[in-house]
Amino acid sequence: MAKNAHKRQVLKYAFARSTAQTALLLTLVALGAVVFFILVRGVPHVNMQLLFGNYGRYPSIKPALLGTLYLVVISVSIAAPLGIGSAIFLAEYTKSQSRFVRIIRIATETLAGIPSIVYGIFGYLVFVVALGLRYSLIGGGITLAIMILPVIVRSTEESLLAVPLTLREGSFALGSSKVRTIFSVVLPCAASGIVTSLILAVGRVMSESAVLILTIGMVVNKMPNNFASPGTSLALDVYYFGSHGYPEQAAATGVVLLVLVVVINILATILGNIFGKGELAHG
Amino acid sequence: MNQAYRFIKTRDAVMRGIFLLCAAFSVLALGCITLFLLANGLPFIGRVGLTNFFGTTWHLSSGAYGILSMFVASIYVAGLSTGMGVALGLFTAIALYKFCPKLAVPPIRQLINLLAAIPSVIYGLFGMIIIVPFLRDHVSPGGVGYGILAASLVLSIMILPTIVSISLDALNSVPRNYYEGALALGATSEQSVFRVMLPAAKSGVLAAIVLSMGRAVGETMAVIMVIGGSPVMPTSLFQSVRTMTANIAMGATELSGDSATALVATGAVLFVFALLLNVSFSMLSGGEERGKKRTQKTGA
Lengths: 283, 300
Description:
By secondary structure, chain A is mainly α. Chain A folds into two domains: 2-45; 48-282, MetI-like (MetI-like fold), CATH 1.10.3720. Chain A has eleven helices and no strands. Chain B is mostly helical. Chain B has helices at residues 2-48, 50-53, 68-97, 105-116, 120-139, 148-172, 176-184, 189-200, 202-218, 221-224, 244-252, 258-285, 287-299; strands at 58-59, 64-65. The longest helix of chain B has 47 residues, at 2-48. Classes of the chains: A mainly alpha, B mainly alpha. The interface between A and B is large, with 99 and 89 residues.
């Protein structure tokens, strides 16, 4: 009797264990399939016409490449100073318990949890309707900046907190002011972490599309002239081509986007690793 | 000397003010978002009436702005995708935690982190060119591939990396001596993992569930490519329907006037829903854990 119960237990757990292993395999297969099929469908259609051709009989992603570049430049150049400044304030100037800090922290976390389409509506209401800019790259870029801000704040704050306190004390002991300490001691030490977080933010900007569908107008066939023109981005092009009868071109654009995002993430990882080790060595 | 000192003092104060302003910007932005959405959405809901807005008919030319069917579709998609994603992701995390070769874990983690960065349109495109045709030809009884099942499948794959990495972190943060203690009491390795470690990591796993549910509710692009888009009450898994996010994105490029405001109101509902999920997330992942992390960091 007892032996039977024991046997059942053993069987049950052996089953649970193999379920877990099967799940791992399935996860890898499912995620692998996404990448695999996009590559298989897309790679044969990546050609000069798609990449740099003029938009005519066949679609081209030249406007999207330029549009994406505009968006990255606008959003990162706004979000980086704000995010880094914000992180400096949180990490260097405050005791973590004060009410004001708690409010800032809650606000940042809430911003991180808002669906991107809601940011899109906000951008639409502010830039397209209230400010009367119509659909524009600058409106989309600023909206994206607000969206990536929490990411930059959080990871910058973490790299600042990882700088040993003794370095700051050493700097103060030599007579440096607070600002001097921050700019010549703390920030250089945390530079790698901050750069990594900025690179990841660039990746987020390139991947985002729901915000842009409401703010930049998805004009896929015209090169944007300046920051105020309407435009498109790579991710938007994937959607546009996919839902307007060009699935091959969509997959090909997907391949381009995928390669860019993967390169950016690997770059960030490598950078983080190199500098991470360096910091340990002299820390 | 005195002057130089005063200069440094002023500079310090000015810079502190600038940093403070940067930090206050997040609060300002959140305030603006809330204000703009509610100020544009709520009066509209008031004007067309609650019964109209939360009704089942969305027919713009006759002034019917009911989003109930979309709300229901959103809930179905989020529930189904989170269910499938969590079942698979949690077991995957458990396998990575104890039941797979040690050497394989770091590369698999790296890979999964990388996959978390794949843009959602790519998942959507995958759904459109692979999952939808497959469902249409082999699974669906009525020959319709679009719909709730397609969207849920796409989203469950999309949220897998998040679930796996948060659950694995939660398991890893359980003290190792729990595991050893269970072994010492005569439990097998499997028993200790499933009966001791997993319950101990419960709050982290719950946080992963809430977070991925938030992503599933808020996801737009991956969904509109596979959901079909008809504003009708879902009655089947294989039927063209529309979620709240899809409603906003599909109307976005064409509508104006009242119809556009209806989209803003949909967004306001979505926003409130996301806030609720957010609050429950921060209650689950708790101040205590973050507090711990902070003291460790500053102590180092």
